[in-house]
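REQUEST
  id: r-88c1
  op: predict_structure
  target: Phosphoesterase
  payload:
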Amino acid sequence: MKALIISDSHGWGEELQVVLDRHRSEMDILIHCGDSELDGDHRAIEGVKVVKGNCDFGDDFPNERTENVNGVCIYVTHGHLYNVKLTNVPLSYRAEELQAQIACFGHSHVATAFLENGVIYINPGSIRLPRNRVEQTYCICEYNGTYATVTFYEYNGEVVSDMIYHYHLS
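RESPONSE
  id: r-88c1
  status: 200
  body:
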């Protein structure tokens, strides 16, 4: 299973489409973790699984979603409803409740990936307004059931060399 995960593009429609189109043909799923600030029918997010962030208004997107891709359960939320800027505990409870293998979130604009209690947590950062790093990031997760790799990329498609994470899963 191969997933592109992006978040917090904050109104960047054309720029978002550039990133998605760069990888679209090689992905099993495209995920946007909220704060796109785009309407649900915007061409940039066609075919993308999008959730609602705190800067998204209207009812175009759900607050959370669970996607099953090639037998992998992926939970997606923006994170503001789980207080992810302060703690990952409420998010982890929800991911475990849904039996997710991967939990994707945004909101903090801080790119990170970590493994906890058998769940891979991924925040792709922000392609527009990154925090804690200068790179405007998104990521790709490759997952085969026993092994996963999360690779972060800069907006221009270059790999962020110190942000490649490998996980052995039981």
